[in-house]
Structures are given as C-alpha cells and as structure tokens.
Amino acid sequence: MWQIVEDDLESIAIGAGILGTGGGGNPYIGQLRAREAIRRHGPVDVLSPDELDEDSLVICVGGIGAPTVGIEKIRGLQSYEAFRAIERYTGKKATALISNEIGGSNSLEPLIPAAFAGLPVVDADGMGRAFPEFQMKTFFVYGVPCTPMAVCDERGNTAIIPEAASPKWVERMARAVTIQMGCVACYAVAPMTAKQVQTTAVLYSLSLAKSLGEAVRASRKQNSDCIAAILDTCPGRVLFSGKIVELERQTTSGFARGRVVVEGTGDQSSSRMEIEFQNENLVARLGGETVCMVPDLICIVDSDKGEPITTELLRYGFRVTVLAFPAPTLWTSPEGLQVVGPRAFGYDLDYVPLQL
Amino acid sequence: MRIGIDVGGTNTDAVLMDGTKLVALAKRPTTPDVSSGIIAALKSVLADAPQTAHIEAVMLGTTHFTNALLEHKSLAPTAVIRMCGPATTLLPPLVDWPDALRDTIGGRSYMLKGGHEFDGQEISSMEEKEVREAVEDMVNNGGVRAVAVCGVFSPVETSHEDMVGAIIREQAPELSVTLSHEIGRVGILERENATALNASLNEIATRTILSLTEAIRSLGLAAPFYLSQNDGTLMEADFAARYPVFTIASGPTNSMRGAAFLSGVANGIVLDIGGTTTDGGTIVNGFPRESSVAIEIAGVRTNFRMPDVLSIALGGGSIVRESPLTIGPDSVGYRLLDEALVFGGDTLTTTDISVYAGRAAIGDGVQESSLDAKLAADGLSLIDSRLAEIIDQLKLSAADVPVILVGGGSILVSDSLEGASEVIRPNHGEVANAIGAAMAQVGGQVEKVYSLVEYGREEALEAARLEAESKAVAAGADPQTLQVVELEEVPLSYLPSNATKIRIKVVGDLAGLSS
Predict the structure, then answer these.
(1) What is the complex's ipTM, to 2 decimals?
(2) What value does the mean pLDDT take over residues B348-361?
C-alpha cells in the first residue's frame, strides 16, 4: 500500500496526460478538486491489486458529460453520491474505488470520493489509456457486469440503470440522462470482486502514471532528456520527432476529429508523420505507411519539456516527439479489438501490434 | 488630429497623428506619479503641433494596473459572490490564487444559490435574503470595498448577476461591483479570477484615471480621452475606471498594432527587440493573434483574450561569452552605452558583434584586434537561428511571412531572416506603442453557445453579429465603419442539439473622428 499526497497530483496529471494519448481532457480542474479533497481529508491510500482481500468490493467511478460544460459547472461530489447510490441499490458496501480511465482528468476522479469516504483506491483502471465512451473498458470485455450503473448530478438526482442490453446501451442511456442533468455528471458501476479486478483491470496503471510524471518532473529539474526519462519508465519507442506543419480539425457526431502532420528535423528532415485523431490519437503513418494504431498508445509530447499535448491544444510550429507504447494485452485479444480496435473507430485496418 | 500616449516602465512616449500621418513625437522618462511624465511628453508634441491643430481624441496605453497587481499595491479589500448552489461548490472562489495575493485582498467569498445551466435554465433560484446577508457580513466583518459577482454560466444568462449587482448597489452603494459576464467567457475559475482582479483594481483605477484626465485637461485638451485594451481596441476613460483589467496586456498589443500600422502590413510577424528580450507576436488582419491557453496575471489564472506573445532572452545588450559560445540571458540593459565595446566599455555584447560584422553602424566601431572574426560570425549565426526559431513558432503555416522589426535591438538583425518573406524596419518603430494607441479602433465582442436546432446557423451568426455591433456602437464606434474582424465557430463535443460556440468580434472607427 502507498499513499497519494498533494504533491503526487501533479505527477499523476502529467503521467495521465501521456497515457491519455491526446484525449481525456485537461486535468487542471481535476487536479484542483483532488487537491481540495486531500487538503480536507488527508492523503488517499492506494492498494496494489494483489493486496485486495478476497471479499473486497471495488466500485468504478468516473465523470461523464461535455468537457466545455465541466470547466464552468465544475463537478463536486457527484462520484461520491454515485458510488453511495450503488451501495444502497445493491445493499453492498464498497471497500475500495477504482478509476474507469487512467488517461486524462478521469484518472483523478476516484481520489475525491475516496478522500471523502475514507476509502482506498486500487492501483488499476479500466482502460490503461483514454477512450471516449463508457463501454470501452476492459472490465466489460471480460464479463464484468456493466449494471447496475448510477448517474448523479449535484442536486440530489440519481438515475439507476438496473439492466441494459449491452455496455454500449448503458453509454447511450447514461448520456441521455447526463444531458438532462446539465451535461455534467458522474457515474458508478456495480461492485467488482478482487478476482474480477485482478483479471479484468489494467493493473498498476496509477503507479505508472505517477512514475511517468515523476520522471518528467525530475528530468525538467535536471535539464536532462525528458523523452529518455519517459521511455525508461514505460517501455515504448519514439515513432518520430519534429515540428507540426499541418493541422486539420472538424467536429462531427460529437467527436473532435482531425489530422496532424509532423515534419522531421535533423536526419529525418525529409520525412513526415501523419496522425489521425478522434478525441484520442488513433493512427500514425510514416511516409504513408501505418506504424502504430489504436489500441496501442500514440502520445504527442513537447520535445523539450515532455509535456503531453492534448488534441485540442495542438498547434502549428510546436516541436513535438511522437511516442508509442504497446496497448495493455487485455485490449489486443480478439474480444478487446472488437471494442477498441481500428475497426471500432471506422478504420479499414487489421490491428498490427507496435514493433518495439 | 489625435494624440497617442504610451506609459511604459522606462519611458512615456507621445505621438501626434494627423489622420495616418505622424506629425510629432516625444519620448520622456516615466515618472513615479505617471502624470508629470505624461504632461512633459504632451507639452513637447503640442509645441510641435501646427497653430490650427484641433485635437479630436487622446488615446493612452499603460501597464500601470498590471504593476499594481504584480506589486500587490493599492488593491482594495475584495469579496467574491458566486451564484452556484448546489453545484460548483467543491472549489471555492480564489482557490488557485497565490496565498500572498489572496491575503492582500482579504480572500472573503460566498457561495450562494443561483446560477444557470449551459442552456440558460436555472440551477436554482436566487434568494435576495441570502445576498443581503452576505453583503452585510462582508461590509461589517470584512471591511470589504469591492465585490466580484460571478454566476455559473453567466455568459449565457446574465440575469442573476444583474440582480445581485442591483441589490448590492442599493444596499451598499459605496462598494464597487464587477459582474463576471462583463469580464470574461465560459470557464468559471478563470472568469471569476479575472472579475476579482478587476474588482480589486477599481479604486486605484478610478483614482489614476481621474489624475490622468486632470493632467490632460490641464493642458487645455478637451478632446475625449480613451484607454487602449488588451485586444487593441479603445474604451472611454470612464469605462476604463470600471474595467481596469482590460488594460493589462495593452502594451504588447499596442506595439504590434503600431508596427503593423507603420509598415502597412496587416498579416505578418512583429519582433520587438529591446535591450534584454525579444517579444514576438503574430498580426492577423491588423490585430494580434490571441492566445488559446490560460494566461496568468500575477500568478492568477485568467481566460482573457490576450495577445499570444513569445519572449526570448535576446536583445541588443545581451552578453556574448566564448567557449562555449552563449548569448544572454543576462544583458547589460540600459548600461549598453557605458559597457559595450563599441561605446568604450569592456563587455562583449550582441551589439558589438553586429557592429563588427557590419550589420550595424553605431558607437566607435570595434577594433579588429579586440574581437575574433570567427566568434563574431558564430555569434551572429546563433542570433539568426534564435530569431528563425521564434519566427517559426509564431507562423500560422509553413509559408514565409513579412517580419516587422521594432525596438532598439533590431540593429542585430540582417535583412535576410529565415522564414521571412521580407524584413521591414518601419520608421519611428521606437514609438510603435504610442502609435498603436493613437490608431486604435473601437470594438465589440460576443462569445456564446448557441443551440443550432433552436436557432439555425445563419440566425445564430446574425444574432451574435448584431449583439457585437451594438456593443461596438455603445463603446463609441461609427456604425458606418463596422466590420467583422474575427469569426469562430466551434461545435462542442458531447453536447446535444448541435450546440456551437460562436465568437465574433467587430471593430469600427471612432465616431466623429476625421481620418
């Protein structure tokens, strides 16, 4: 067991930004909320997945809604209300909470209810990166029930989805409820057992995010190579580095889609890498040849400072390094690829694993 | 004719413009009281004005209020009222302020019922009694003299802020009140922060602007008096006393606008090269491009539209060192005239290698023996590559663009700069700020989320444009000259009914001004 203290939040936010693969939103407000929770109630305990008692009950919480609304009507304790609602509905008390998504601002969400309830969080999550929709979690791919699911607003409204035809239907129904709640809400899902967490979650992702952030912060302080520090912490490779020379965006059917082109510098100056994104970076091509694709992680970071750059902040002229990390193996099985493989995002591509 | 004034940290500049023609200019030291420096500069340009000159307007740019925030000086005890209950209460107002600044203004805040959803529905109804109790408490127990009022989604629906403002003015008319929807856009922490900064500056702004007005009037100038804003447009001095926070980034804006005007280039890059630093910005349709990320003022995060300025530590006084070759970040600054080699000093500066290589001809020249030719050449190519890099970061696309140079340090730069389609050194670049102020227009801006199901795209655009135009006219624009200078439509992800954010800015010439 270890503890998350105030200073860790910045590290986790940087690491979650890298694992967010361009999506997951700006963690600034999430970081402030978690800081507030820790200032009021003290550090949050983190349980390693193998430390979970056999009779543990672990509830997954997360935020749902429009990021543009979330910066104005800032979330409070909705995820606390949501996990309590699941406890009441199921008649079972949670012993720990778990993040739905380690990428971006959702990575910090469980810390808030955990601090207020005095519960630990588990060092694991349901994605190992960021994805745009509820159903895209390893838990559900490997048979963990996605209901009952609770959605809560700040007024005391709770909607419970007791049953659903599929995780995708939970996403659709919860999204509709969230809109009525003013486009900002939090949710919680039926408790998982220790065994379910150990076999279906992406393990040790919270400590990975923290280590990534610590590595970046340390190398900034020492003026050493941030990129090397990242790769020393998390095995992966540099796909490309250079300067952003083209950027196209469009928002269609709710997703921020687009394409960014990075032109090489130094000995790579004649080549170009093109990355397509839909909220997250999905496919990277070097000279027209696909070199990395979802669910493998494609992360664009500032070449000097190692700062992860979300897709909405990409801009012409940025000096960037494109990093790739292999997807958690839970995603690269046929069942996993069906939910988050290239075809799930509309690409006519068969998944080819990243070559390290 | 119009007069432009720029009050900087070191100098107070004034220019007299006849239409687009520069008639007179003056540079005087800035004085601690601000007014005497302005009077000195004004007297000088007025002395050079033709007998028949009729001054139609006086425009002034100042960083005075920025300095007040940076130095925590003369800030009023300020309270924040947020209307949000029961939403948005986990993070109280001023939560991300530096402790010292929060303590300086007292840091009192109240989270009350009220506020709206993104579509304008109420989160909860406002309660007058709650507001009155808060006002009583802040006055009696907090010694508060200024209030920032911020409702959730007030940029979409202003009624709750308006009602709270009216209650305060009636109950405690001595308090100065700032409503957040008049200050900023969606993003509650940043807007609320900016509103509180504005409120805390109200007193000093009122005092300062009164004394500036008196100074100008004391010279017999009866013309309308304006201050320049962050976005390069003007506001009347009375208005500026209520919204001082809008002047905070006017310095770089005026410099860029002045450079654009002097060079006749509407789209390009401006490099203001001083003694210690180079500030670079991008001009789009005559206005500075604005930053897309949160800007901190005195350590406080805000979401103002501010010019996107990149600064590097390279100027005419930057110190050059050998093996390994480095330039800056330290500079001899204003001591250049004593310490640089070309002026008989013994510090090697960027100005010296520039003179040595024949790029500039100032001072007494550099002896062949005192400087190694290779060092000079390597130094210059390092300067060029630094400037090429900043130009590249400022460009909006890969194509080369015109680069306009202002500031004393521009003698460092050769006429062939990588990334530049041409290098322009306008005459009178040294008073670009004052000229930027003198040539400013007035504008109106609207940024709102529209549901395109309810409105239809054309209708929404039209509604936004009309609102921006009426704001511009209210600010003093001639309706005949209005034009849209910025239009941005951003469809919002995960929102129903095709919600789209529309941001539109119109500007026009000052009404009643001959050009």
Answers:
(1) 0.90
(2) 88
Tell me, yes or no, if B227 comes closer than 8 A to chain A by beta carbon: no
Q: How far is B360 from chain A (nearest CA, A)?
A: 31
- CA of A307, closest CA in chain B: separation in Å? 14
Name the residue type at position B250.
S
Contacts of B180 (CB under 8 A, 6+ apart): B148, B149, B150, B151, B154, B161, B191, B192, B194, B195
Give the gap in angstroms from C-alpha A250 to the nearest C-alpha of chain B: 8
Contacts with A256 from chain B: Cβ below 8 Å: 493
A-B C-beta contacts closer than 8 Å: 113
Amino acid letter, A11: S
> Does B377 reach chain A within 8 Å, measured CB to CB?
no
Q: Tell whether A340 is covered by a domain.
A: yes
State how far the Cα of B70 lies from the Cα of B8, in Å rounded to an integer: 15
Count how many domains chain A has. Answer: 2
The CATH number linked to A183 is 3.40.1610.10
- pLDDT on residue B498: 66
Q: In whole angstroms, give the CA distance from residue B129 to residue B126.
A: 9
pLDDT score for A251? 61
d(CA B142, CA B428): 51
A chain contacts of residue B419, beta-carbon cutoff 8 Å: none
The verdict on B345 touching A (C-beta cutoff 8 Å) is no
- Look at residues A316, A321, A193, A305 and name the one whose alpha carbon lies nearest to residue A247: A316
Q: Give the list of residues 6+ apart from residue B486 with CB closer than 8 angstroms, or none.
A: B285, B287, B503, B504, B505
Report the largest interatomic distance among the alpha carbons of chain B, rounded to a whole angstrom: 82
What's the predicted TM-score (pTM) here?
0.88
Q: Kindly report, residue by residue over A209-229, the tens digit of the pLDDT.
A: 999 999 999 998 888 899 999
Q: Are residues A37 and A107 in the same domain?
A: yes
Q: Is residue A162 part of a domain?
A: yes
Whether A154 sits inside 8 A of B88 (CB atoms) is: yes
The whole-angstrom distance between B252's CA and the closest CA on chain A is 21
- For chain B positions 186-205, those within 8 Å of chain A (CB to CB) are 186-189
CATH number at residue A248: 2.40.390.10
The answer on A340 and A265 residing in a single domain is: yes
- Spell out which residues of chain B touch residue A69, defining contact as CB-CB under 8 Å: 118, 495
What confidence category does residue A339 fall into, taking pLDDT thresholds of 50, 70 and 90?
A: very high
The answer, yes or no, to whether residue B232 has pLDDT greater than 90, is no
B 62-91 residues with CB < 8 A to A: 84, 86-91
Question: How would residue B113 be classed by pLDDT, with cut points 50, 70 and 90?
Answer: very high
Residues B10-30 have a mean pLDDT of 90
Q: Is A269 exposed, middle or buried (0-12, 13-18, 19+ CB in 10 A)?
A: exposed
Query: Is the residue at A8 inside a domain?
Result: yes
pLDDT (mean) for A41-62: 97
Per-residue pLDDT at B415 exceeds 80: yes
Tens digit of each residue's pLDDT (9 = 90 or more) over B119-134: 888 999 999 999 999 9
Residues A118, A249, single domain; the answer is no
By C-alpha distance, the chain B residue nearest A75 is B88
Nearest to B91 among A74, A255, A315 (CB): A74
What is the domain range of residue A326? 235-345
Contact: A33, B91; criterion CB under 8 Å: yes
Look at strands A58-65 and A184-192 and give their pairing.
Answer: antiparallel
Percent above pLDDT 70 for chain A: 98
To the nearest whole Å, the CA of B495 is away from the closest chain A CA by: 6
Question: Nearest CA to CA, how far is B367 from chain A (Å)?
Answer: 38
- Judge whether B388 is closer than 8 Å to chain A, CB to CB: no
Nearest by CB to residue B187, choosing from A71, A153, A154, is A71
Element (H, E) at B102: helix B99-105
Q: How confident is the model at residue B322 (pLDDT cuts 50, 70, 90)?
A: confident
Q: How confident is the model at residue A254 (pLDDT cuts 50, 70, 90)?
A: low
